[in-house]
Amino acid sequence: MNQFWQGARTYFKTASFRKVSKRIGYFFAGLVVLIFISSAVVALYFNTNKAEIVTQINAKINENITGTIHIGAIKYKFLKGFPNMTLALSQVELKDSLWVFHKRTLLKAQQIEIRIDLWDLLSNEININKIEIQQATLHLFKGRNGIVNTHIFKAKPKGKKSKSATTSAFDEIIMDQVHFISENQLGNKLFDFDILALRSKIAFSDGNWHTNLYLKTVAKSMAFNTKRGSFIKNSLVEGVLTVVYSNSKNQISIATTNFGIGPEFFDIKAHFSLDANKSPFDMAIKTSILWREASALLSANISAKINQFDLKNPINVSCSIIGDMNAKGDPEIIVKTNIRDNELKIPDGIITDCTFDATFTNQYKKGAGCNDVNSTITLTDFSGKYKTIPFKIPIGIISNFEKTTAAGSFKSDFNVSRLNEIVTKDFIHFSDGQAKVNLEFKFDILDLKIQQPLFTGNVDVKNATVNYGPRNLTFVKTDIELDFTEEALLIKKINFKDRKNKVFMEGKIDNFLTLYYENPEKMNVNWDIYAPFLDIKQFVGIITNSGQKASKKKNTKDDFSSELYAVIDKCQVVLNLKADQMVYSKLEATNAKATILLVNNQLIVKNGWVQSSGGTISFDGKLVPKDDLFFLQSNTKINRVDIARFLTSLNNFGIQSFQPKNIKGFLSASTSVQGTLLSGGQLKTNSLAGSAKFKIDQGALIDFEPITAIGKYAFPFRDVNNIVFRNLSGNFDINGALVGVKDLKVSSNVLNLDVNGVYSFGRGTNLALTTPLRNPKKDELITDKVERAEKRNKGIVLHLLAVDEEGKIKIRWDKNHE
């Protein structure tokens, strides 16, 4: 190799090489001089024959158009395009013959350069084989009345073929800074592009042609329907397009790969027909793209809806667009995608491990038009996890984008504890148990909110443990069977236990889902509840316990705890209660039944009935929250209960002056009282107010202090410690610690006693006592009631006062008796 280069250097120094290189230099110098001379000759020819050339150009143009063309000036471009002639046409305007009606100029350019074949020009024929348009506006127009500005080219006579059908066609087109507008008012279409650069060399063959076209443009509008908005608005579009024209099909075909639209790249195939009356087209687009990037390329009516959603990872998408450039309305759009192991963001949260196939079409029913009403999204084999809850939607269809509806099937099987990811711990906490969901659904969607939902199917929960935080209530071994029908939610079975109670529930909620989402305050929950054992104090404590509200620290869209709590708080609940055994503190009852209404956070009891203390008690009432306390209103009828047992079970109503052991008999009474309950169900001391009427049969007063205190002095020889009475009845007005006593009559074997006045559970007792001194022991032998009443107050009658002195009852003479 070194020997070769050494020989070459020796040759370059020889006279022979210098002679050859000099000849080569003369050749290229002569060639350059020849080009300059030839170009100068062409320039001289143009200037000499300018008028004739311009006439030929005008004739060539006018030969093919019916409108008017204005050219400001024509200049020769020295050397450019040699050996052909390049002419620069400045201030060019091209108008069709109907311009006066539509006012749209077809072409307005600062400069157009055309390349003319010099040999044809010398033969007095103009053939333009290259055109370069700079700083121009090209505006295609079709009005609502069908008028167009493109009927500028003359139709060729039938059967006539140009001699230069091929040679006179442009074989190279260049555009720089060209504003292209295609305005179709009849079809509501607008295509508006700022073409920064376009380069195309065209090859012709038997009436067909093809080219690799480089395009760089900004899409200001690509609206297939101007009412819906533009696709790829304000996006930079750049790439190389393979364009083929078929003369037999009168069709242009376009194909490209890695074609840039905005920041993304697409593979595109398209066909455009050039028929005069119809202009059908079709486009097939494929790409891998992020959801939000894809949304940014769509029209506003579509992107506004799908921007409520997002997918974390890129998705593979294929799209086909089929339509007619001359037809009104949208083209048919079909979009398909396959999502695998992605993360889907929805308005209510995030779905992880998301996998599904989806198809969008705006012509679901063929022949019904391409529009929002006929648009659908079909989801198949959808699976994912909401929080940690897995679910499947074998098929789901979202239809009608004007009045959107969704329908499909929903399935899930999961451990109940996973619900803790959805609701806050302070509200409801789950542990243990398994849930199975199998539902068919259909609902309307308005502003991405569910309206008029319809679910059919069932939900089963087995062996769950549930803690309801606001009432600090825990249910263990809870079974739930829910059956959703078209008319109602049927709660076939809910079984649960807490610390003391075991409850079996069945229920029904008419129009459940619609009311849940739209009017929870109108929801009526009807429960049939059976309990072998029920602690009423605990139950009332649940209602009255202020507890903890659902956590409000975090108010995120994917946490529906507050929404669920609001529904529970607003709905109306009707409980039809039956219990074999029931207790309230020490009060025991059997065969209990009642209808309980929970309305507007109030507890209303109707038709309550129990067996207790050897008799029966019927009642109704109301419990209303007031700040941290609860207002109680109750009407009660008591029929022949054992008074001692009854008073003992109710802690003697807080009375300290006597104990239940001081009284015997069977109590019948009717009361209408109101009072205040503390949180937890305890009666607030001295809060009762109302009235009571009572009667005691087969009664006895044993060591009853108010009587024994009188008997010591007034009846020392009578057994006042054991008074058996034929009748004990009276009326009371209750006002806190004070009881107004009206017409209390005691008719016994020891004494008769009439009592009126005020008795106090605390301080303030002031009772007027009317006591005949006669011994009534033999009055029971008098069968005539009138005669017995006449003898009641015969003889000496004592009028006494029982008054409170420093917490003790003192007896005084009643000087002011009636």
Automatic annotation (TrEMBL):
Domain AsmA positions: 19-149
Segments traversing the membrane: 24-46
Keyword Membrane assigned: yes
Keywords annotated in UniProt: Membrane, Transmembrane, Transmembrane helix
GO cellular component, one term: plasma membrane
Domain of life: Bacteria
A single GO BP: regulation of protein targeting to membrane
Name under which the protein is recorded: AsmA-like C-terminal region
Lineage of the species this protein comes from: Bacteria, Pseudomonadati, Bacteroidota, Flavobacteriia, Flavobacteriales
